[in-house]
## 1
Amino acid sequence: MIENHTRQRYPTWLPKVLLSTTAGLFAVAAVLSVATYKLTTRRVELQDLSATQRQHLIQEANKIVPPIFQPFPLAGPPLFYLMTPFTRYENALDTFTTNELGFRAVATSPKPNDVKRIVVVGDSWTFGQSVKQVDTFTYQLDQLLNRKGHRWQVYNFGIPGWNTANEIAALRTYFSRVRPDIVVFCPTSNDIDDGYGIWNGRLINRGFNSGAMFRRSYAFESRWIRVFKSLQAEVDALKGLGVPSLIYFLAEWRKLTPYYAKLSDFRAPYVVVPSRYLEAKYRLTPDVDPGRHPSPKGHRSIGIYLHNALLEAGLVNGLDRLPIGDRVVFPGQVFDSAEVAAEFKAWERLANQVELMPLNDGFMSWEGMFSVTAPPKARTVRVHLKLIDDPGLYPLAIEVRLESPENISLTKVFDRFVPGVQTIEITKPSSLDTYPVIEVHVIADRVVVPKDLTPISMFRPTLDVR
């Protein structure tokens, strides 16, 4: 009798393990396939492009798209640009024609003798970025003021990308043309300096890029103080001409306006857009408007609040305040220190941004501004440079400027290319000890253009504070 014995050459649990492992690998492969598909089919965003690709995009686009903005150099540097007069444009959801000055507004003249004109000065929020003209808060305000008869005319004096310096310069230039009876300034939270790269008419190659942020640093604080002082000076000048004014702070100001008002001794009457109007339901979605400007609902609320503020300030009379649920507040210079600290805390993510000027794929062009954490007891700021081996650059003078009340700077000249890391040290003054971060400005006096169209002067500098 022969017994048939089959020998088991592997453990009984092994097939189960292999099966589960195979299933797991298939699941991982499926997830990776979906992720790869999403990445490869995702719409390319502007931030995905390198500086060189952006430059080429602008060049190609300028060949097929007519200019939207035009330079206005004869009016002086602060004005920069305007929209082309008597030109038809598309604004996402609307098509409109600019007036004789280049604004999305009623004809500048003649103004009826029995009608008073309110000129609303601002940027893209005032202009009405990505909404129809009838949905802008300036148009809504016009309708609200005239619900008992045509006595007021609201003039939209806003251009996308303008900062406070642009707005004030434009108002002065066109004051006798627009003939305001009341002026409303609408500064937004990126008006510290112009952070926009306007496509046609003006390209920002140099300059401070605020990115609509607030940070506890001398560079930001001193700029905001200058903005508030310039607004106060313009309010005083208008008062001397018999024209009253109101400041209406829009966008992300929240609780910070009275803080800067106190620092700058700002005395002009002002209101701040209620924080709830900055919520998502009052703003456009990113697919419609990447800048998340106000939606028609947001514009309507902003217009009603401005209507009530004009009544509260005594600039308009004969009308009733409209129900909206938000009491008009004139904050003045009164603020809660804890609230201000909380606001700056909320901005820390952006405030920790290192590069405040756009760089070219790891290279610096004419200049760069960098933010660095600075402990109060630290005394030395070190800027580490890596030069480019290109004979056309030399001699190269590099200035390192510390943004401070003393405006300390140090310049080093390189007669020729020097390999390795070159360090420039500059002393941090005690005046900056109260600020958790400081800004350092690096400026080169020459650039070269290697293989693309973007000028460069050196590799991206790095910084540390000791």
## 2
Amino acid sequence: MKYSGFQIMARHVLEVNSASIVLAGSFNPAIFQPQWFVRQNLLPAEEGEKAEIRVITPQIAEFQTERLIIQVTPERFAAVSKPDANPAPLRDLVAGTFFTLEHTPLKALGLNRDMHFAMPSEEAWNQVGDRLVPKDVWKEILRGRIGMRSLLIQAEVPGFSDPSQEGTRLTVRVEPSAKVKFGVYFQTNEHHEESKNSASDNITERIRTRWEDAYNYAAEIADYILSWATK
């Protein structure tokens, strides 16, 4: 089932949703100020004027607008949508940034989504952990109440199963939610490393071509797992 944004399910509800695009490379934090993005037509003028600047130095830049947070160090650039804000503009902002800064060395890309689902009951919440991590084997060696705290799964990115696409992988994390009572947290990370045989524009192209699919696939994974665990 295709899924995007907020939707009420028969057994679970997406309560908190955010996304981010993270790049590894070599950056000059001091240039990443709200008005720079405005001048490049990457942020509306009004949003740039109202931005809250937390810090701008040669070593770190961080500011936030009503929709997003930008964090930059010499090795890392991150654009994060605020919880429940529309994350769609992240793609154009980040791709446009590094189209403009075309000579910036980029090493790796992460397309990420964070989702907190409310379960209909404590019983259903416990059922998710019990099905994902059966407790019988642990009861033979551990004592007291046994519960799943974190599960990490790695897989191939759809469309990138070719062995030549080394450095491309999907990681899914499942944990009890820290934000929603009887909630389940899913974090997905679609990771792409720069090919040794191509230029850095390969990374910006993947932002454009993979962002929407990665975002929607994250929700499909969560919906499938929660439906399977509670049926």
